[in-house]
Specification:
single chain, 517 residues, mainly beta, Pectate Lyase C-like, 20-stranded parallel sheet, 12-stranded parallel sheet, 5 helices, globular, hydrolase activity, hydrolase, Pectin_lyase_fold/virulence
């Protein structure tokens, strides 16, 4: 199976249904996943760390931060909408979109303000005039429009003639730190902004052979929403950014330590049918933001150039530092370091409260990678924030080694440091002829706890050591339930459990020797 950079992510739902071939409805599957999560979730709050001492820089960042909580004050869950599963808050966001449509008092064409889509004329001034102070619907006809940057005020919609027809391209003299498209005020915040039916080109070629294409923090991306409430990004392609294709973010990233998060995060943002490639770091990333919905999207083939060569942690979709209550539906990734990575740096709070329904990963090094860096080893502090992931209908096809991150063993799934994790109705397909060098397909490790893997199939990983590995020892996993798993023509050991374990439950694991491609 191949997914190119021209893959239409609107087909993901149909692809996933054909590959999984599951008789359960989406509603039935979701109820099953919710029950598995309920069974393993621990309700009590995480204990405060007593062994961890912040350095001076973390203490300084912490002054600009606020407390991080893993509990959703609204207690939002999932709801069935047609044959999809969506966050409960989506109808409210739909009503806000209707309000945006009623508030816009001007509907303009950017060419009427002097913009020329010839790929050469600087159209920055024309766009600024068209946007004005907001309450405007700006149409951008087919063509390539060069700008130095665009900043969108509240109550604004900017719409093109289609992903491949309308392209907004960053000027050749723009500095490396420049964001191509962003909201206007990161400090005070903006609201009701929609970007639709167009392409964004960060024009990385202007940097020549620069070793690092990004300027740090939340600069250097195609589209940045920072401190935005009620945002939409629909049918937008973003290519070749120095950092991210799409960054749903806070005013500024914050590294004030675990248990703290940045102020000024975005809230209630929906990205649908977006795609990108050539990104220096991640396709979509979220930071310190709440109630984000990402659906029917595709990311592939990063450049990895925001990292040191050979250490490119470039993910298709990354739910990163301080993010909370994020829903992912029917997305796909290919040839990235991570397909979906839910994580945090050591000096930040982890993402928490993530729900995934349907994801197709093809040839990613680590299809699904959940971790809190700096909280894995026996001597590391326990994470205060790495909690609560529920996922269903995950498909990993042929994970591979990659030059992007030298020495990183391919995995369909890795859970490290996270607690309260339920993964249901998954399918991991390997290449029987590929040399996995004795590495396991899925690893539950590094102080992960209360993890449930259920109703899954693993096939074709003949040169792996185990289909599912649960690490033991001082920094091993704890309280893991593995049930109703079929291993077909795959590793010699369906389940391998590290030494000293007394808290792993294994039920109804079947092994079949023959795998038919």
């Amino acid at each position: 199976m191949q997914l190119s950079k021209y893959h239409d992510p609107a087909k993901n739902k149909e692809l996933l249904a054909a590959i999984l071939n599951d008789s359960l409805s989406i509603g039935e599957t979701t109820k099953e996943t919710q029950e598995l999560f309920r069974q393993i979730k621990q309700e009590e709050a995480p204990e405060q760390n007593t062994i961890y001492k912040k350095n001076w820089l973390e203490r300084l960042w912490s002054l600009l931060a606020e407390d991080h909580s893993i509990e959703d004050p609204h207690h939002y869950s999932e709801r069935v909408e047609g044959d999809d599963i969506v966050p409960e808050w989506k109808p409210g966001l739909d009503r806000q979109y209707e309000e945006l449509e009623t508030v816009m008092v001007r509907r303009v064409n950017v060419e009427d303000f002097g913009a020329v889509g010839d790929g050469a004329t600087d159209c920055t001034a024309a766009f600024r005039k068209a946007l004005g102070n907001g309450r405007v619907d700006v149409f951008v006809p087919a063509g390539v429009y060069v700008v130095r940057k665009l900043e969108l005020p509240s109550w604004t919609r900017i719409t093109g003639a289609g992903k491949g027809a309308t392209v907004i391209k960053l000027h050749g003299h723009a500095p490396k730190r420049q964001r191509l498209l962003a909201n206007q005020n990161f400090v005070k915040g903006n609201h009701h902004i929609s970007v639709e039916n167009l392409g964004l080109d960060w024009n990385v070629e202007r940097l020549g052979d620069a070793a690092n294409t990004s300027a740090g923090n939340n600069f250097s991306s195609c589209l940045t929403f920072a401190n935005v409430t009620y945002g939409w990004v629909k049918q937008v392609a973003a290519v070749n950014p120095g950092l991210h294709c799409f960054d749903i973010s806070s005013t500024i990233y914050n590294y004030g330590g675990d248990g703290r998060r940045a102020r000024g995060g975005s809230r209630y943002v929906w990205l649908d049918q977006v795609n990108g490639y050539g990104f220096g770091d991640d396709g979509i990333t979220t930071h310190h933001s709440d109630y984000i919905f990402i659906s029917n999207s595709h990311f592939c083939d990063p450049s990895g150039r925001s990292h040191k060569k050979g250490f490119s942690n470039s993910n298709g979709i990354e739910i990163d530092d301080g993010s909370r209550f994020v829903w992912l539906l029917n997305n796909s990734t290919a040839r990235c370091f991570g397909g979906v990575e839910i994580k945090a740096h050591a000096t930040s709070s982890a993402a928490t409260g993530v729900f995934i329904s349907g994801h197709l990963s093809v040839n990613d090094n680590r299809a699904f990678n959940f971790r809190h860096i700096g909280h894995h080893l026996a001597e590391d502090p326990q994470s205060l924030s790495a909690f609560n992931i529920a996922a269903q209908r995950l498909v990993s096809v042929a994970p591979v080694f990659t030059d992007m991150y030298a020495g990183s063993a391919p995995r369909a799934l890795v859970v490290s440091g996270f607690k309260n994790v339920a993964i249901n109705r998954f399918l991991f397909i390997g290449d029987p002829d590929y040399d996995y060098q004795g590495n396991p397909v899925a690893a539950i490790q590094y102080k992960a706890a209360r993890v449930s893997l259920a109703n899954g199939r693993v096939a074709g990983f003949k040169k792996s050591s185990a289909d599912i590995y649960v690490a033991g020892g001082k920094q091993g996993a704890d309280r893991v339930v593995i049930q109703n798993i079929r291993c077909i023509g795959s590793a010699e050991k369906p389940v391998k459990i590290g030494k000293g374990h007394t808290s792993v439950v294994v039920e109804n694991v079947e092994r079949e020797k023959v795998y038919r491609t």
